[in-house]
Every structure is written in C-alpha cells, then in structure tokens.
C-alpha cells in the first residue's frame, strides 16, 4: 500500500488507478494470501468431490490446471473417476481412498521426518488411505501402521517404535476408537485422531468413536470430523512441515 | 402338585384346602424361587437407597433383619447413613462407595478364585468401591487394580498378571472408557464393563464411556448401566461362584 | 526369559540371538497368549465379514486354515458366501444368521451344561441364530427358546424351566426389549442381553431396546451392542465353559 | 343462532344487541364448551402449580372458587402449599403427590367400575399418587397396585385379577419401563402408560422408559409424557366414565 | 380348577389326567385368555408384515384361517401382497395403507358410535388409512377427516362438529404435529395421537411430532409410536367398544 | 355481519338464508382470508411435491389453474417433472432447485428493493436456487451471492456491499453454518438463515449448521428448517414487500 | 478513500499519514458501521448479563453512558440488579424479564405500526416480557396477547384481530409450541417464533417446542433460540421499522 | 537391553540381577518414557483437580515436589485453592482459570515463536485463561486476542496480523463457535479449536460449538473437548516447541 501511495504522491499514478489497485488490494489481499499459502506451501488445490458431478469436477480441474497447480480431489466415486480420467488420463485414481490426484514428483527424504498413519482395523483402510495419500500429495513422507487396534494390543507394541519416531501421528479408528488414547499415552508428539463410521448399532455412524476421542484421558490428542482422513492429513502436514524445517540439515 | 392331588384323591385333603395350596403354590412358587435364590446363594437383601428417606430405609432393614438376612444398601448419602447407624449401630458405612452393610464373616479363600476390580482413574473410585464392597458382601474375594487407565498404559501392564488370574474382571472407566477394550484384549475370562459419569463436556454424563464399551472391538465384554458398580459386581459374583465350584478341591 | 539369560551367561547363545528371542518374546508374548487362548479354548478364528470383499475373506480363510484353525465368519451376505463356498466348499453357510463356518465335530454332552438362547419375536431370529450358531461353533450346547416375548407372557412361562436350567442365558429382543428384565427376574444365572434393531419409529434403530436393557430393574443382566449376537454368544461360551468344568464328572 | 335471528326478524332484538350476542357467541361459544365440559363432567378446574408463586396460585384459586368449582392444583411444593393452606384451610395437601385439592364428597360405587393404578417400584409412588388422587378428584374409583415391577414378576401375577377387572389401567414405571408391556399383554382394556424419571445413567431422565413404552410389542398401550401422572389419570377418567355409563344399572 | 379337583376327589379323574389338565390350564390359561380376548372381541389375528417374507406370511395366514379367524396383515409391501393374493385371492389389499385383510361383513350402525380419524395433510394418508382400515376390520364405524392441519385452521373448524360427536379421535400428523393439541382442546373425548415421519430436516424422522404430542398442553391426549396407525386404531377400538355398549339401545 | 342482520330486520332476508350466510361466513371467513392473502399478495399457490405422485400433483395443478392462480411446486424430482410437463408444457422446471413453476411476467424494478441470497458453497446451490426462484416466483427481485463461505472470507468481503444494500438476506450454509453469523454481524437488515444438510459425519444431516445458526452471537438472525429454501424465501418476500412499500416513489 | 488519495496527490498529506488513515479506515470502517448502525437506528447498547458480575456490568454501563447511549442489559438476576441500581439509580429493573434498562422517552405512535407479542401460557411470561420490553426499549410499539395457547383456542380467536393488524408477531410458547403454527396460519405478516424451556419430561428443556416451530407446516415462520426473547424482539424491531417507514404519513 | 545382555555374557551381572533389570525395564520402560517426556520437555506434572479433595491434591503436590517437578493443577475451585495455598504458599492461584501452579522462571523469547490464544467473547475467558496460563506454565510464549468474535468481525481483522504470526492458534468460542472457521480461513498454521459451554438453549452445553468446529469448512482445524483449555494448550505447546526448534538461531 505504501508503494501505491508513493506513486500517487509522485504523480506516477492517478487517483482512479490507485483506487482500483487498493480495491483490488483489498480483494486480492485475501486472495493473495490464499494463493500465497497454496503456492508457497506446495499444496495442490483440493476439490471436495462428494455431491459434484463429473462434469463439474472436470471444469474445476481445468481451471486449476490453467493456474499450473496440482490436483487433489477427495471422495470421488469410481464411476465418476473413470469419466474424469477419460479426459485427464494423467490423473491417478485410488479406489480404496476414492482420491483422484496428480502424479507426485519423487520426494527426497533428506531429514527423515515423516507422519505415522495408524489405523485400528482393515475396515478403516478407506479413511487411512485418504489420509496417507493426501499427506503424500502434500509432500510429506508417510509410514503406514495398519490394523493395530487395541483388541490385540501386541500388534501396536510391535510397531510402537516406528510410531514414536514420527513427527506427528494420525490415528484412525472406528467402533470404540480406543486406539487414539493408547497411542496418545505412548508418544510425545501431537496426535490427530480421526473417528470413522466403521461399526454398527450403538456406534451411531461414528458418534461412539468421536466421543471417545474427544474425551481421551491422554493429552496431546485433537480430533477432526468422522471419516475426515483428508482433514487429519492437512493438519498433520502443517505440523510435519514445521518439523522438517526444524530437522533440516544446516 | 402331584402330592396335593394325591392327597385330594385319597380324601386326606379337601378341595378348598387344595385350591388354597395350589393358589399359594402359584403365588409362593415365584416367591419361593425368590427366597430360594436369595437364601441359597447367600445374597443379602439389597436396598436401593437413592430416593428413599432414612426412615423408609430403616423400616426395610428392620423387615430384612427379621428374616435373618444380611443388609446391603446402596447409594446411601452420608447424612442418611448417620441417622440409620444411630438405630442400627452394627452396620458399616463406606463413605466413598455410599454403601451401608452388615459386617461380613471372614471368608476362607480355599481355592483362590477372585474378582478383579480394575479402574481407570482415581475419580472412578466411588463406583469401583461400590463394586468391590458389593462383591465382598456377596462372599467373593476381590483384588483391586485402581488407577491403571490407558493414558499411562505401563500401569496396566505392571498389573496385568494379577488381572489375568481372576475368574472375571469388572472394568470401571469414565471419560473415554478405553480401558475395557484394552483389558478385554489381554485376558481370557469375561469382562463386565462399567462406564462412569466421570468427565465433562462431550462426555455427556457417561454416554461417551457407555458407547465406547458397547462398541468394543475386543470380544468377551458386556456392559452395565453408567455408574452401576453394584450391578457389575452382581454379575461378576454370579460368574465367580460358578468358577469357585469349578476350582473347588475335591 | 531366565532360560535365555542362562544360555547367554553360559555362552551358549550370542547377545544378538538373545535379543532376537527376547524381542520375539515381547512380540510373541502377546501373540502367544493370543494363540494360546484360541488354541486351548478351541475358539475358531473369527472373521467380521461386513465391509470385506469376498476376495479379502478368502485370503483370511486361507491364512487361518494354514494354521489349522476352524473358520467362523460373521455378517457374510448371501452372494459373498456363494463366491467363497465356490472356493471352500467344505464351509457351511447359514443364510438367516449370515454365518459361514467350518463343520463342527459332534459334541458329547457329558454333563448337560447348555446355553439358553431366548428371543422375543420371529424378527429377532437373525440375531438369535447368529448367537446360537456361534455358541455351537465354539463348542457349547445350545437350547433355543424363540418367540417368547412379553406381549404373550404365557409363552415364556411355558418354557421357563428349560431356561432356568441353563448355565447362562442370551436374551434377544427388539422393539421395547422388556424380555431381558422379565427373564432376569426369573432365573439365577447370568443373563447376556442383546438389543436388536427390530422395530420402527421411536425405536431409533435399536436405541429403545438398548436403553431398556441397560436400565433393567432386574439384577444379573449385562448388555452387548445392538444386533451383536456374536458378542453375546462369545460371553456366554466363556461362562458356560467355566460351568462345564464345574459340572464335570470327577 | 337461529333463535337470535328470529328475534331480530321479529323486531324483538336490535341489530346491535344481536351483534353483541353473536360476537359473544363466537367468543363464549368456545368458552361455553370449555365450561360445559368442565361443569357437566364434574372436572374441577386444574392448576399447574410448577413455576407459579404461592400468590399467583392463591389468586387463581380465589377466581375458581368464585365460579363454584372444586380445586385441583398439581406440582405444588410443600412450602408453597403451606402458605396457600394458610389462606384456604379447607384444601387438602398430599405431600407425596404434591397435590392440593378440594375435599371430595363421598362417591357411591354403584356399578363397580374402577381404574387400576399399577406402579413398578416404590420410587414411582409420587407419580402414581398424582395419578390416583387426580382420578379420585375427578370422581373415579381407584385401585392401587404398587411395587409390582417385572424384576419379581410373581408380585404382578398375584395381583393380576384385580388389574384385569378394571375398566382401564394406568401403568407407571421408571428405569426400563417394561411393566407396561407385560400388563398390556395380560389385560383386555386400554392401558395408559406413564414413564417416570426414576433411575440414573442411561435412563436419561426417563427417556429409557418413554421409548420402551412407545415401542411396546403389546397392543392397547398409549403413552403420556414422562412423570405425567395427572395426564394419564385425565385420560383414564375419560374412559372410565364411558365404562360407568355402559355398566350402569338400567 | 375347582372342577378338576372335585373330579379327582370323586374318583372320576386320575391324578395324571388332572396334572395334565392343570398343567394345560397353566399353559392354556394364558393362551385361553389370549384366545378369549381375540374371539370375544372379534379381533382378527394381526400379522406384522414388515421383515417377513411372502412365504412366512402365507404360512401364518394358513394357520390363522385354520382357526377360523379373519386376517389383518400390516406393513405388507405391494409386491409381497401380490404374491400372497395369488394364493389367497379372497384377501383385500389396500396399497396406500399397505394392509392385507379379510373382507368385512357389513356392519349395522345401530347406535351411531364411531371413531374420528383426523389427519393433518395428504402425506399422512398412509398412516391414516392404516388406522381407519384397522378400526373397520375390528368392527368399528369410522369417519375420516383428512387434510385439516393447523396451517389453514378453518379446515378443521369446518369439520369440528363431526369430530366432536365421535366416541374417540385418532389424530395423525407429521411435521410439527400441532393438530393433536388443537383437537384435544376442542373435544371432550379421548384423543389417541399418532406422530408420523412425514417431513424433513429437523423433523428427525418423526421425533418432532412425537415430542409435540407428548408435551401437549391440552389434556386427554395419549400417544403411540411414530407411524403406528395400527396401534392407535387398536386403542381407539377398545374405547369405542365400551362406548357402543354404553350407547346401545336397551 | 351487521349488514346481514339489518337485512333480516328489514325483512329482506329469511332466517334460513341469513344462517347460511353466517355459517358460510364462519367457514369462508377463514377461507376468504386464505384466498385474500394469496390473491392480494400475488402469491402463487404452492405445492409441496415430495411424497406426492405425478398424478396427484397434476390434479392439484389443474385445480389451481382453474382458480386462475400461478403454480409453484417444490421438491419435484426430475422424472416426475418430465411427466407433469408433458401435460402442462407451459410450466418451467429448474432441475437444480427441483422447482416446477409458472413463467413469471417481467418485473419492473421501480425502487430497487431486492433480496440477497447468500450461500456458502457450491453444494448448497440446490437450496439456494430453491430460495431464489421461490422469491422471484413471489415477485421479489433477487441478487445471488454464491460460494462466499467463511473458509475464504475475502470472497464474502468482495461482495459485502451488494449484500448490505438488500432489504433482507437469506443466508444458506451447510457443514458448520458459520456464514450466517458473519453476515449477521455485517448487515443491518434481517437475516433469514437456512441450514443445509450438506456435509458428513458429525454434521448429522444438518443438525450442526442448525445449532450454529440458532446460537448465533450476532443479532438479527432467525432460522428455518434444514434445507428449507422455500420457507426462507417466503419469509424474505414478506419483509421485502414491506420494504418495497416503504421505498416506493410517492 | 478517494479523498485521502487526492490529498496525497495534492501533497497535502504525507504517505505515512495517509497510511495511518487508511489503516484506521480499515479498522474504523467496520467500527463505524457498527456505530452507525447503533446510532442511526437508536438501538441502545445491549449487555448480555448472564455470567457477568455486577462489577463487570457496571463497568460496561459506565463505558456506554460515556458514549451517550441508552442501556439495555438482559438476564440480570435480581440481586445483581439491586447492586447495579445502587450505582445507577436511573436504571429501571423488570424482575419478571430480568431486564435492566434506561427509562424510555415517550414514543409518539404516529402511524399505528406495532409488534404483537403473543404467548401461550403464564409460565412463558418471563420470555414474553423480555421480548416486549426489548422491543419497547428499541422504540417499537408493542401489544401483548398473553395466555392464548391452543389448549383453549377460543382465547386466541378472541384476540386474532389485534394480532392480525400488527406489522410482525413474536410468538412465544413452551411445552409443545403449537401456537406458532396456528398463528402463522392466521396472519399474513412475518412470525418470529420463540420456543421456551417451559415444561418437563419429554420437553427436554425446550427441544420439543424448538422442533415444533422449525417444522411448522405454516409458512412465514422463522425461529430463534430457546428462551431468546431478546433476539426475537431484535428481529421484530428490524421489520417493524421498515413497516413504520412504509406506513409513515408523507 | 543389549547392554544388560552383554554384562550377563561378560559375567559382570548375575541372571537374577539381569531379570530384575529387564523386568524393571519392562515396567520402568514405560515409566521412564513417561519421566523422560515430562523431564526433557519441561512439562510440569499436571493434576486434574475436579472431584479431588484439597487433601488429595495436597498429597499429590507433595509427591510431585519430592520429584522436583513443577506443579500445575487445573479446575481447582477457589475454596480448595485457599486451603492448599495455606500449605504451599509458593503456589500461584488464578481464580478466573481455576489454575494453581508453580511460579515460572522468566522465559527468554529468543526466537519470537508464540501461541495465539484467540477467544470470541468475555464469557469464554475462563477457558481462554486456562489455555493461556497452561501454555505459559509449559514454557511457551503466549499472545492473547480476546473478545474478537464474529458478530463484530472488525475486531478480529484489527488483530489478524498478530494471530497470523503465531506458530499455532488456540481458538476458543462458545455459542455457535464460528470463530474457529473464520480464523482457520485466515491463517496458515494449525488451529486447535476449543468449544465452550457458554450459551443457553439450543447450545446444549457446548454441543453446538463442538459440532460447528468439527464440521468446519476451513482446513487445518482440529478440536478438543468442550471447555478443555488445558488440552488445547498441551497440543499447542507440542507444536510450538517444534516451531521453536525450527526458528532457533543456529
């Protein structure tokens, strides 16, 4: 803004032009931040695919590609994905996670910082893969620790060192969701807990696991929406990026 | 009934007398079962003290003592207990558990069968003691494993052998109630889970722990009402008695 | 562990080998318990079929059969079962209960201990059969008492002796779920109550029966998740096994 | 209205007077019905005492007495009742039911029709007495069957004949509320079910009993609000009055 | 029973025969009541069709017809009904109400007693017709007052006299369910309220109308389960029968 | 009424005729108001299409057209609309909003009063268009401000002047519904908030946005049912009409 | 902004000064709007008294009075109000509504526009008075129509003309909340509905009335939070002000 | 472990001693981790004061001080705190936050990393201060941005730069909780959202804000339990510590 004012003062810019720029500034100010954030951090643009037609998604992809950004579309059902891939064959589709995304460039793991994706059962894999692939699409390294639920807690303990060494954990569990509390008590980094709708009866579509995680007696746990693997990964990547800076060789 | 009919046939009993006895049979049939169950199993009569006045409780105690049974009154607030003890000084009052009960005769632990009372935190002690004292009042041996919640899971593992050797476990936890699942995955005997109302916010007065326990991914867990230490103990004693017979020296 | 240490002390085992064994011990310790429990108790491995593809289930069956264990798969829809039976024709499929399981060896009923499976209405039969067949697959004797709901309570009374003589009852009811309380007041053994989602409107998919059973005014009742016939049977078999030991001829 | 119009036509009534009367008719039309209903049926005016001050209740009583009606005030706490009785010493106060009401004239029981007030436990007595005293204040005969809950179902069976002979039953139960279903299955007259807030934990202040009663598998049961003994009695009296006419000697 | 005992005393009946009869008595005692109730009151046997296969329903119909009773099957979907009518062409199917029932004999309306079936909107017609046809199948006269919801309250007032003259009203409403309160304030006979699941959003599948009706500020209203037109009719018929006796010419 | 009475008094009207007119008055009184309201305000008749068959909707359209009114049918699925348009080809169908309506005459925007339709995301467009088209069908000018949710609040600020200048805003948002509070804090006219069921998990079908809007810390916000774009528009049009009168050139 | 830029261009303002003003503009921009809105509309500043100490409220009053604004404090308990009045004796306290406010100047009712405050029962008076006094404090005329609930609907009809002539109605009802639908069907202006927490049992602290109002089958109704008389009045005043402009003599 | 085995192999350690150490290792393994975590990170020991007596808290403080750790006790009511300070006068008590804690050593703010504590209203201050003081007790720098709720969004924008420069934000809001979404859309660091129970009516004790935050349309938000300021701070400190390492001068 100072620059614009100086131009006006110097007579290099008319009042009308300055007003347009300042108005734009007000508008693009936020937009810039928006862009800045996306560009600087290398976040691809994200499309929430649920409730959008294949055609709508294609238009958005077209618009994003024009900006030169990578694509990440969540909750894209298989049949819609097939249609879209017909037009954008360069996109990869993961059926388990229902994700459609741009091929990632190989990442070099210079400093070893990674996110642990920990899931309780095989039925939680859809959400777990949504989280894992999202994190990878955002440029973080990921280690998967699947099917380590508390009903057979030795499975967790056999993997606990790998989990402990991560910069942040995403813990995914349905049914009673107890895994988040147990992991939270065993690690010293932040845990992002994702309740899933896996289960039946008094599970009430994920309410049970959600309440479990919100009431966790272990500290260091925060929670995202039921089945929101994407959101958990987004949080985890934010933290992992800080950690990567911290760990970076100097 | 056959006996009565034979008496009628033999002319030793009038029709009127037989009808009275058969009617009584119908009525006392159930009542007998009731008495039989209480007497044979050595269960003291149980008074649910909540919502009853000291005076009402005293009258019931009077009536039970006339039958020669022991007393167990649950949820008796301290001030009511003081009044009642004024009249029945032989009764013991446990303030933590809000239980008022007859002094127990020393039990001989011939075969070592016992009930594990496992609780997550110190705030669950009221419910845990209600369960432990109830089980003792019903004649079972009890081992207490308190404050072994999953936030610091080493506390549980340090005690797991003692829990595993019990005939049945009562697991008491508030907040997210994850302890029941973890214990259920580590022992091979039945687990009676008691959610407690300990917690705040999205705990919703015990709903969180209740749902957790009902949705446990570990097998062998059944659940009683929130804060129902008495009911859990009642179930556990039933199982422990079968186990004591099974273990009895022959 | 002592043995391993002695071997190390004696120079018969290298430090590396000892560490591997101790690590394995830590890991297999839990796994052993796991195996021990399954093997000793004759529990077949259980597969939760819901949300798994026929292919996934086949792989797990393959893996379990390699270990020499029996198979019990719950919640397997008819079409998936048909595919799986194509590959494993020796498995039996029960369509009502949606169970797929290994043929059982004939059980000798030496001491007459059995589990009562008590259900309120014909619509509860799916859950009741899941419980009954599970209990049989786990080696217990079962007596079925179906369609004895409280709306016509004489049906229950006509069967009450058979229920009373069981070692444990599984009581299955939807709608208002009152049957569990009535049975609980008439028997002196543990009752495992299973609310079902049978009903409509203010039944709220089983919530009504669930709350009824949790609040039962009869003692000796514990509850499992809505429609969880498997879980109830698992609990009941644990208790019946203790009872069978107790009743065994000596 | 025809009469008024004829008077106008005949010149016996001015247009203004007719309009006043017709306007009054419109207004008093409803009011008359209101009065008619109250007067003809001998219903005393009813005051809902909760949330009203003693002074407000006194003013309403004053107004009702001026009309010559009897008084029935529900949910009047003891201390408020004491104040009001200071001014209206002729009113009777029942502390259990928190009812304040006019002394009833002796009723002659010509045809034996009566309402059965059936309650599950002693803690339900407040609601049961609200129902019983209300029904009596409205002129019906009442038989009380208290403490006949399903946990000891023989208590119910010992009283079932007396319940069956009533014209209508009011069934009052808290906790799991199963009594309504059992009574509904044993009688052939209408059952008005009243859930009470007696209980704790997953009772959720009466929700458990309410859902139980709404989902009853027995036919002939309808339900009123939690703890609404007054409303149940009001319904029952309506039915009992029809039955009294039906039974009346001719 | 007295008769049996006298026969035994007189030597006309053996003890074994008497025991069989008394046992039968105990069993058939309840069954008899059951039959007595159904037969005397002319209630056809009722089949809850939801969740039963066409084949199962056919078997039950076969069994009921053998007893010589009429048929009333509720919640029978159109395709199932078509199959069943193929075998029992004498049955009538009403598609709106999803009822399948025996043709009724013409009823003579000697004393004019009838049930008012009052519904708020055209979307409530399924439930309203279930109630109306059930009441007719049970032998009551019915008057239908449909589409008289409170949004255009003049529709109700235009019909209020017809409603007032009924012996009992069944009031059916979805969305906010206010119609029950308004009718309850305008009539002096019992009102059976049926909340329906008609609506969307914060209606929560009928919860809104259910709560409205339970909390009605008008007296004389009792409530059945959401969409339970059958249950409301069953209650109404019970009351209408008493009224018909009361009104009968003598 | 006075007129009628005078006619009677003057002998120009018989009592019978007067009674018919007064009765009609009572009945048509409400109906007239109804008509008056619809006609005077230019509201087309509205048909709630959900749960009605194409045939039923056609009959209602026929009846409304006979009265000469315009048509507005909400929640008409595409296939039903196609059938109806076959018969009424003059009707317009908007697939996004599922609205079927009469072509509007061009409105002259004399005084510039308009309704702002503000929506948070593209998934809310169905509800937003239901609101916008309804308002237009009722004769109001509408400005659409779509996809201005708070996650990128600059989008809202870029449009805030256009929103501020409206006479009333309809704010439509799903997920967490925060947009209503933010708009409410920035404008000085009434805000009608519409929660939508857009979202998943702990959104609970719109409950989340509903509660958000009811608890808004900004003043001047009132709320309609989840997804009720029609209802919000109806309210907004009522207010906009007052504003149009206020703004009208004089 | 243009002015500032011209000053800069003309050299009358330094860049630094311009930046400060523009920054201030950004900040005060919103603040100005805020002030503008309050000042221009004559809204007194509003203090939400719940959860604030008497001392905190006094400080805020002090600050507001310094700005020369009137005071309106809601939800101020009696004892707190007494303390505050000790310091600000010019403030008026209404105990029923728990409002503390500045004495209003007499309003001239030039054009007769007024808000109808309609309440169902005497227990709703606290909320009704909060609404009425708030509206008066904001400068609107108010007519009170209290105790006109639907249980005795003639009370409403006797007052319907007065309600119909208002510019907007605030309808306040607890228990089942049906009054809003009935009023909404009888008037042609906007209705702001306020559910109250008056009631018990299945009322669930106002949830029942809230759902009723949200699901109203009458159009033209929008809803505010439970017991939020203030918020309803705020909405109503906004609409009434438009109406006053519309009605103003010209 | 390797070290121990080598000592055994070398004969420097007996088998018994090794077993004790390994056993201890197993037990203290977890405990060590626990200690390690607390010590290394400078976390003081935390006591959850709710439901503990002053005496119990004193004992725990005594035990912690013996270990040389600092004290942080949450949810300590004023009267309890007064008693405890009588014995531990060196502890500081903050009445707003109900925190009792050891005096902190001055922190040097070498690299400027800090946590933004952002709250919506003055009523949220208790939770906000619990978070702020906890974070300070754990060694982080904190900037407070209080009373910046969305109803007057300019307050937020005036402070947005300060919030954006934090390493992590804790956003605290009651009522509708919209602030978290707005902040989440404006910053590029993780946001920990804390719903508070501030509000009334359809707020349902914080449920409204909780659901809002879980469903946030802005990415980068995770949620903790209602009113859990402590838990949010714990999470934030974990992240801020990573950031401090990242920012540290090298």
Structure explained in plain terms:
The structure is a homooctamer of 250-residue chains. Chain A is of the alpha/beta class and 250 residues long. Chain A has two domains: 76 residues, no CATH class; 133 residues, Rossmann fold, CATH 3.40.50.1970. Chain A has ten helices and nine strands. In chain A, the strands form two sheets. Chain A has a five-stranded parallel beta sheet with strand order 6-5-7-8-9, sandwiched between helices. In chain A, strands 1-2-4-3 form a four-stranded mixed beta sheet, with helices on both faces. In chain A, strand 8, helix 9 and strand 9 form a beta-alpha-beta unit. In chain A, helix 3 packs across helix 4 and helix 5 crosses helix 10. Chain A is globular and about 75 Å long. Chains A and B meet through helix 8 and helix 9 of A and helix 8 and helix 9 of B.
């Amino acid at each position: 803004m100072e620059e614009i004012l100086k131009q006006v003062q110097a007579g290099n810019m008319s009042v009308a032009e300055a007003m347009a720029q300042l108005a734009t500034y007000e508008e693009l100010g936020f937009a810039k931040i928006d862009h800045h954030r996306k560009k600087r951090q290398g976040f691809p643009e994200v499309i929430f695919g649920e409730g959008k037609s294949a055609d709508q998604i294609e238009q958005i992809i077209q618009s994003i590609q024009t900006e030169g950004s990578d694509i990440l579309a969540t909750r894209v059902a298989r049949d819609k994905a097939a249609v879209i891939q017909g037009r954008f064959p360069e996109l990869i589709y993961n059926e388990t996670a229902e994700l459609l995304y741009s091929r990632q460039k190989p990442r070099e793991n210079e400093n070893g910082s990674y996110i642990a994706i920990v899931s309780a059962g095989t039925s939680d894999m859809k959400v777990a893969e949504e989280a894992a692939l999202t994190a990878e699409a955002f440029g973080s390294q990921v280690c998967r620790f699947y099917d380590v639920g508390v009903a057979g807690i030795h499975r967790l303990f056999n993997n606990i060192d790998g989990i402990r060494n991560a910069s942040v954990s995403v813990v995914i569990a349905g049914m009673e969701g107890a895994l988040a509390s147990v992991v939270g008590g065993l690690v010293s980094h932040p845990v992002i807990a994702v309740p899933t709708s896996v289960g039946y009866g008094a599970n009430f579509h994920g309410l049970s696991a959600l309440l479990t995680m919100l009431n966790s007696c272990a500290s260091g746990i925060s929670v995202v929406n039921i089945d929101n693997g994407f959101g958990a990964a987004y949080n985890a990547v934010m933290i992992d990026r800080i950690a990567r800076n911290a760990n970076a060789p100097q």
